[in-house]
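Suppose a colleague, Dr. K., hands you the sequence of a protein chain of 290 amino acids and asks what its three-dimensional shape might be. Before reaching for any lab equipment, you can write down a predicted structure in token form. Begin with the sequence itself:
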Amino acid sequence: MRLIDGNAIAQQVLAEVKERVAKLAPIVPHVAFVRVGDNPASVSYVTKKQKTAAEVGMKASLQLFPETVSKEELFAHLDALNADASVHGILIQAPLPKHLPETEVFNRVSPDKDVDGFGTQSIGRLVQELPGAFAACTPAGVVELLRRSGIETTGKHAVVVGRSLIVGKPAAALLLAKGCDCTVTIAHSRTKDLPAVVRLADIIVAAIGKPRFITADMVKPGAVVIDVGINRVPDATKKTGYRIVGDVDFDAVSPLCEAITPVPGGVGPMTVAMLMKNTLDACERAQARG
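The predicted structure, expressed as tokens, is then:
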């Protein structure tokens, strides 16, 4: 079994981004974060992204709104960011309060600045394999982990467990696309005989949002397992009272695998690294457009 070190690979990506950012001087890539409310996880994620942006020489700004913000007020702010030539990428931190329709909010971001890849145009361009499409950062990180780990994907059967718009669907599109060339199955909670379907996989991408959902009986020997899950489970030995586990039962599954990502330290760091790469790409494209 080989452990795929997401921290190390993310550092490789960020080092390359930092080098490219330096070559753009005096232009500084700028990502604008928009956060609604004070969800503790959202606060933590945005803080991490801001810190990483600073480390690679990018500017990161943050606009905070109360949970009661109206759609009209939020849209007015997004329109201003779209019109601001000094802003190259816009990221709206999910989840949003229930009165704000996420799809509408994501679509308010200009496709040229949609570095999170959640807008309808971005997803459509990704599926059509058009140049310049922004892929959602987590599935882009999954593919980058496979590529930089030397995992063969051509002709392999990849099973993506989970069908979310943020991970499952774009991950399937990326794995299917030219360059990866996988045969792809999307499985989910309503899939009949799910264990049998997952057992067919050469590559498993676990993104169903349930702790330790993928068990040893669902994994064929020699499979590659990419665990996207981030789940809190009670742990009285921790100061926080919980610990983070993935969607894969790591201890039981890892002995079967050719390679596997840990949680934490696998896909998570890649999500932030790919956001920085997307923002840099957006900046370079803006300069090319003049």
